[in-house]
């Protein structure tokens, strides 16, 4: 290392040599190349000792903040028992019971390590139970990176989302606009006989914080029941974040299957597919394969139990609603102060900040695609330079570790970025 190189620059060079693109998930290519030393509560520290107030939460999982002490202590204890046994262990059963007690509509579950995998299990279960092939999904929703579900939407058409992906893998996927009841009902009328399952983010959070229009989820629910299609809520982001029972609880609509991950295990890798027992019948016999060496391991399920110990009290949600609300109000005040064409939309625990000069509420992915995302990336870069770690794609997550003091400090740190925009 030369004298002029920072520790971070040295690590970046080394990362680029040994990790493809310097990262281990392509999502991380979307932000600048930060080399993290550690996280604590609401803060991240890079290898040069620079500190950031964090609103990305590791793409969402760290809903209780980084290294929440009570969770860490329980995990340290749990892993003394060993991690994986090729047999069911006590904590797996306890974690499943605790999760299912939250969702009265669901009766059974399977654990996995990532939501991408659990989505695959859900699609397989939907197809096996209905004897149909097609999956109906929506532009702008993300359900993992596997060949049969990853898409890229352009001009209202969905194509492969990645190089190396076989286009044929998407032949049994129909993609339509979300939040449009008419289009949904028409598609089911025309193609319903071949649609095994409908998968959606029940609140669109990957591409913009868009709530379902009143009556939309109810109409989808009813139409799926009438048509015999399995309704799958992908609550990877919304689950355990919008409230203990996620979007299904918040909006009062129950799916047949739901995928959870991220906030469910306070940052440790665990995901779950939950649902009605009859849908899992052939999973239980073993004729429908769902497998995974690390599924339901001790650390993952101990993390679920420890996270639920915190989340079930309800205090976490009250705090995140309050602190997130203060942050939204503060950002809106900066937008107004500098008279900028920007907008905050969403909920205190997950919202999007965008450049958008219209006053119309954003209700569709089409509207989001028309916004100036490149301009926002430059702005996000400025926020990061000011010591606030955010996603380039506009989403802000608030954790239970954030405080009113963090909000005040964040607003003070980021005000120069708003001023610079106004001056430019
Ligand atoms: C809604 C949704 N589904 C599925 C996934 C894939 O989850 P994982 O990265 O755990 O495989 C994500 C990841 O961000 C997601 O947001």
From TrEMBL:
Output the Pfam families linked to this UniProt entry. Answer: Aminotran_3
Going by the UniProt record, its keywords in alphabetical order are:
Pyridoxal phosphate
Matches recorded under InterPro entries: Aminotrans_3 (IPR005814), PyrdxlP-dep_Trfase (IPR015424), PyrdxlP-dep_Trfase_major (IPR015421), PyrdxlP-dep_Trfase_small (IPR015422)
**Cofactor field:** pyridoxal 5'-phosphate
Q: Which SUPFAM superfamilies match?
A: PLP-dependent transferases
What protein family is recorded? Belongs to the class-III pyridoxal-phosphate-dependent aminotransferase family.
Q: Which PANTHER family match?
A: GLUTAMATE-1-SEMIALDEHYDE 2,1-AMINOMUTASE (PTHR43713), GLUTAMATE-1-SEMIALDEHYDE 2,1-AMINOMUTASE 1, CHLOROPLASTIC-RELATED (PTHR43713:SF3)
Protein name per the record: Glutamate-1-semialdehyde 2,1-aminomutase
Which organism is this protein's natural source? Agreia bicolorata
């Amino acid at each position: 290392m030369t004298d002029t190189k920072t520790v971070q620059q040295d690590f970046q060079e080394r990362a680029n040599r040994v990790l493809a693109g310097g990262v281990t998930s392509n999502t991380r290519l979307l932000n600048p190349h930060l080399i993290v030393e550690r996280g604590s509560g609401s803060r991240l520290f890079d290898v040069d000792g620079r500190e950031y107030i964090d609103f990305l939460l590791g793409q969402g999982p760290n809903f209780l903040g980084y290294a929440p002490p009570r969770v860490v202590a329980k995990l340290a204890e749990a892993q003394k028992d060993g991690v994986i046994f090729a047999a069911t262990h006590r904590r797996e059963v306890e974690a499943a019971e605790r999760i299912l007690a939250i969702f009265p509509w669901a009766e059974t579950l399977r654990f996995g390590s990532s939501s991408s995998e659990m989505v695959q299990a859900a699609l397989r279960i939907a197809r096996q139970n209905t004897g149909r092939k097609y999956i109906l999904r929506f532009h702008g929703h993300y359900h993992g990176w596997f060949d049969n579900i990853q898409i890229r939407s352009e001009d209202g058409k969905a194509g492969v989302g990645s190089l190396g992906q076989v286009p044929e893998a998407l032949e049994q996927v129909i993609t339509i606009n979300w939040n449009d009841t008419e289009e949904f009902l028409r598609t089911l009328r025309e193609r319903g006989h071949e649609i095994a399952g409908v998968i959606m983010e029940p609140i669109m959070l990957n591409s913009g914080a868009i709530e379902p229009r009143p009556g939309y989820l109810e109409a989808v629910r009813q139409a799926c029941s009438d048509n015999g299609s399995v309704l799958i809520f992908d609550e990877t982001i919304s689950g355990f974040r919008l409230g203990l029972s996620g979007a299904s609880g918040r909006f009062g609509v129950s799916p047949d299957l739901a995928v959870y991950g991220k906030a469910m295990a306070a940052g440790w890798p665990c995901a779950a597919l939950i649902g009605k027992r009859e849908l899992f019948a052939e999973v239980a016999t073993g004729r429908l394969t769902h497998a995974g060496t690390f599924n339901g391991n001790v650390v993952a399920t101990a993390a679920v139990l420890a996270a639920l110990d915190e989340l079930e009290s309800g205090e976490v949600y009250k705090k995140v609603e309050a602190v997130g609300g203060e942050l939204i109000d503060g950002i809106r005040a900066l937008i107004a102060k500098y008279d900028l064409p920007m907008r905050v939309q969403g909920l205190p625990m997950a919202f999007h900040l965008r450049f958008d000069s219209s006053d119309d509420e954003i209700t569709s992915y089409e509207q989001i695609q028309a916004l100036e995302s490149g301009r926002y990336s430059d702005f996000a870069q400025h926020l990061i330079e000011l010591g606030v770690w955010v996603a380039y794609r506009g989403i802000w997550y608030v954790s239970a570790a954030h405080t009113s003091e963090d909000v005040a400090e964040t607003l003070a740190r980021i005000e120069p970025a708003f001023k610079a925009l106004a001056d430019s």
